[in-house]
UniProtKB/TrEMBL annotation:
Residues 171-269 form the HTH araC/xylS-type domain. This is Helix-turn-helix domain-containing protein. InterPro entries: Homeodomain-like_sf, HTH_AraC, Tscrpt_reg_AraC-type_HTH. The keyword Glycoprotein does not apply. Keywords: DNA-binding, Transcription, Transcription regulation. PANTHER family: ARAC-FAMILY TRANSCRIPTIONAL REGULATOR, TRANSCRIPTIONAL REGULATORY PROTEIN. It comes from the Bacteria. It comes from Flavobacterium algoritolerans.
């Protein structure tokens, strides 16, 4: 039996989650009562009442625990359905990547209502299987869902960026990475923006995180390449141009360096 593409449920614990949900579904949790704790990318997170969790499929989630009074509305979206219907909005890339690192959203009252309405709208359309245009309608509703959620994510990202503008040198470097790593991959660019030497910027990053500025730049760039390659609506030349590479061959060499395979080979691996 084919697994459902959209699942909406009220849950009080993970025993109600679909089997292998971390591999098959993108998970959206709106905590309505109590709290939950989990480890994500080797960091411990706590989500409490009124907050929202977003886990992409294949994220490493462990030690998931719930308070006794936990209650949440949870939406599971088929991995392929979501990735096949990304709108062509590269401005949302930063919001997606931000939530790969910071999976908890703190929505205001209006956005809480928008989240729940968005959950219900997508789920309701997924049930209309007798409609002769079902597949087309579901794809359009999926795109609308993504745009609505991205708009909410962008609100939080913009608030975070305003805060980081007055932070430490390391925090300001991370903020600059968020803004510019699509097209700027040299340490010198960021050190010039911060009015310090490239050597000192590497020392700051090494002291704060154990890895250099150049390693951070490569990580951020790699994440964006992966995300763009997973969007099958963009061809490889468009991605190369979007990221400011001088030629398609240079982009291919860079991708091989960071991913170990060419752009087309990577796309074949994630089919």
């Amino acid at each position: 039996m084919e697994k459902p593409k959209i699942i909406l449920l009220k849950a009080s614990g993970s025993e109600e989650f679909p089997k292998d949900f971390q591999k098959k579904y993108h998970t959206h949790i709106f905590c309505q009562r109590g709290s939950t704790r989990f480890i994500f990318n080797n960091r411990t997170f706590d989500c409490k009442q009124g907050e929202f969790i977003f886990w992409l499929a294949d994220n490493a989630i462990s030690e998931l625990n719930f308070s006794k009074n936990f209650k949440a509305t949870i939406l599971f979206v088929d991995k392929q359905l979501l990735s096949d219907n990304y709108p062509n909005l590269n401005t949302a890339t930063d919001a997606i990547l931000h939530h790969r690192v910071n999976p908890i959203l703190h929505p205001d009252k209006i956005n809480k209502e928008r989240i729940l309405k968005n959950f219900q709208s997508l789920y309701s359309k997924s049930l209309e299987t007798n409609n002769r245009f079902y597949n087309e309608i579901l794809k359009l509703q999926m795109q609308l869902f993504i745009l609505e959620m991205w708009d909410i994510f962008m609100d939080q990202l913009e608030r975070r960026n305003r805060t980081l503008q007055s932070g430490t040198l390391y925090e300001r470097f991370v903020h600059l990475l968020d803004l510019h790593c699509m097209k700027n991959r040299e340490v010198q660019f960021y050190s010039d923006q911060l009015h310090i030497t490239a050597k000192y910027l590497n020392q700051i990053c090494k002291a704060n995180t154990g890895i250099t500025a150049s390693q951070w730049i490569q990580r951020y760039t790699k994440d964006r390449i992966v995300l763009l390659l997973e969007n099958k609506k963009l061809n490889i030349s468009e991605i190369s141009d979007e990221m400011g590479f001088s030629s398609h061959s240079f982009f291919t060499r860079y991708v091989k360096k960071v991913l170990g395979v060419s752009p087309s080979e990577y796309r074949n691996l994630v089919k």
